[in-house]
């Protein structure tokens, strides 16, 4: 997970009311129960008490130790929990989701910051792992699961564009990113290198895939949690979330397989 600035840590502390060791309105018991029931996490583990045993210190240790995906899931859940008993503060939400974007994408404001860390290579295994984790959370938090799956697909597209030395599109949503990778990967209608007897059929499949990708992005916008959600209101059920995740998985793994076929000696570094 990217290292958070002191100001970002203080923002998290303030949003989740962590002064004097507290965390929202949790007691030690209810915090442990909430993490176990809602997130399947044992927050009482010794590793989360390295800086102290208070509720706030355990959450801070959790943020320091765990990967960005899991930290993002927890902070989103805690935000939802807070909004269930307190009016949503738009300024707090904007600040939190800005931090979440950094945590979950693994990039800081400057792409150059990634040069100082070990590069992560995107391949079938690493992307399947990320999407499998999204699938596992589809029942307990379908909106976050869809957001995570869409973010993984966006990461694959963004990485292809940057590794090939192209500029990112003006519209950096999933549709814009996916459209930008089709030509360099030979997936545009006039550039498909397949047997002429099946070329039209393949074009139809690829056209359908592009429509599905656009739909995943729209579902993330309207039904995911990237833009917040109303208190106590769930827009997605697990069935639809799983459909979107499987679709994102199909698109992401197809792009990686196409990359490996077209550039067999070049790793796809994550950006």
How helix-rich are the residues, as a percent range?
55-70%
Tally the beta strands.
Answer: 2
Structural domain count: 2
**End-to-end CA span:** 13 Å
H/E element order: HHHHHEHHHHHE
Q: Give the integer mean of the pLDDT values.
A: 83
Shape: elongated
Tell me the number of helical segments per DSSP (H or I, 4 or more residues long). 10
| Main sheet: strands, sense, barrel | 2 strands, antiparallel
Structural class: mainly alpha
Low-confidence stretches: 106-119
Spatial strand sequence of the major β-sheet:
1-2
Query: Which radius of gyration do the C-alpha atoms yield?
Result: 20 Å
For this structure, the CATH topology of the largest domain is: Four Helix Bundle (Hemerythrin (Met), subunit A)
CATH class of the largest domain: Mainly Alpha
SS strand fraction: under 5%
The CATH architecture of the largest domain would be Up-down Bundle
The gist of it:
The protein is mainly α. Helices cover 59% and strands 1% of the residues.
Overview of this protein structure:
- This protein is an all-alpha fold.
- The chain has two domains: 1-107; 118-271, Four Helix Bundle (Hemerythrin (Met), subunit A).
- The chain is 59% helix and 1% strand.
- The protein contains ten helices and two strands, in the order αααααβαααααβ.
- It has a two-stranded antiparallel ribbon.
- The model is unreliable at 106-119 (pLDDT under 50).
- This is Abortive phage resistance protein.
- It comes from Paraglaciecola polaris LMG 21857.
- Residues 177-257 form the Abortive infection protein-like C-terminal domain.
- InterPro entries: Abi-like_C.
């Amino acid at each position: 997970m990217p290292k958070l600035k002191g100001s970002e840590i203080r923002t998290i502390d303030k949003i989740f009311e962590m002064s004097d060791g507290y965390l929202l309105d949790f007691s030690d018991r209810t915090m442990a129960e909430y993490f176990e029931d809602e997130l399947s996490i044992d927050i009482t583990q010794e590793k989360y008490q390295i800086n102290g045993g208070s509720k706030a210190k355990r959450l801070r240790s959790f943020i320091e130790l765990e990967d960005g995906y899991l930290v993002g899931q927890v902070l989103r859940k805690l935000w939802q929990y807070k909004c269930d008993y307190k009016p949503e503060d738009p300024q707090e939400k904007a600040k939190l989701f800005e931090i979440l974007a950094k945590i979950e994408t693994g990039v800081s404001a400057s792409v150059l910051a990634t040069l100082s860390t070990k590069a992560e290579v995107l391949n079938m295994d690493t992307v399947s792992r990320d999407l499998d984790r999204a699938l596992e959370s589809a029942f307990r938090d379908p909106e976050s699961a869809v957001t995570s799956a869409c973010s993984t697909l966006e990461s694959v597209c963004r990485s292809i564009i940057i590794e090939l030395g192209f500029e990112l599109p003006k519209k950096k949503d999933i549709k814009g990113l996916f459209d930008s990778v089709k030509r360099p990967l030979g997936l545009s209608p006039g550039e498909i290198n397949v047997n002429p007897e099946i070329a039209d059929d393949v074009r139809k499949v690829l056209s359908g895939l592009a429509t599905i990708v656009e739909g995943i992005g729209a579902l993330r916008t309207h039904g995911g949690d990237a833009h917040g959600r109303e208190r106590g209101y769930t827009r997605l059920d697990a069935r639809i979330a799983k459909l979107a995740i499987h679709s994102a998985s199909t698109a992401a793994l197809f792009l990686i397989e196409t990359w490996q076929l077209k550039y067999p000696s070049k790793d796809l570094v994550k950006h």
